[in-house]
Amino acid sequence: xxxxxxxxxxxxxxxxxxxxxxxxxxxxxxxxxxxxxxxxxxxxxxxxxxxxxxxxxxxxxxxxxxxxxxxxxxxxxxxxxxxxxxxxxxxxxxxxxxxxxxxxxxxxxxxxxxxxxxxxxxxxxxxxxxxxxxxxxxxxxxxxxxxxxxxxxxxxxxxxxxxxxxxxxxxxxxxxxxxxxxxxxxxxxxxxxxxxxxxxxxxxxxxxxxxxxxxxxxxxxxxxxxxxxxxxxxxxxxxxxxxxxxxxxxxxxxxxxxxxxxxxxxxxxxxxxxxxxxxxxxxxxxxxxxxx
Length: 292
Hints:
With 292 residues, the chain is an all-alpha fold. The protein has 13 helices and no strands.
């Protein structure tokens, strides 16, 4: 007969729950309380009286908000897949036995550890129309460079290029970890079967990297919405709101226009969009993920 497990003593249970108290306290203070405060604030009018749904009604009429929403969706839709694809490519290349591999990895990862404001200042110099590095190089070939940050058609793609440059090195580290977790015997078996490198990557490596891709995609999506310090430094949302993104618009509404109630309503909408997109990513990618 199996020995009956002794019931856990009450003092042990109390001690176990006591260990969870600090975590729950931080969760309540820094997540639950701000969320509840934001919901309550969004239901008050500009004179801080309420309850009212005027803030949400105004969302449907706010052209600047719609412009910022479209800009951010386009920004995320392009920067997230391009960053992940480039990160995966860099990881595969730097996984091989190369001379100076550690130095190359450090160089690719370096943009990820730089402050966003520092990166914005660097790229601001690159994009200067008169003395910028990019236009200077174009001038060597007799090409007159445009005003990258002053053209409504070029400003958002210019910011996208900077975002991809910053994010690719960061996610490369995750893909390197994923590649190193793959059993080397799979590669040896492919070579014995005469399988080409591209086929091996498509049939073996890429499916095994899907859990990493799902995680990186969710993080990259959040970064594409919350990381707007560069907008403040480089464009201030201009010209003509062509580079205005949601979080920057929330900042402008809350602090520049002194309308925190409307900023709270926009914040809740942003949270809802993030949750919906994250769930969509999980639903679409989870079917193709191979968990070992």
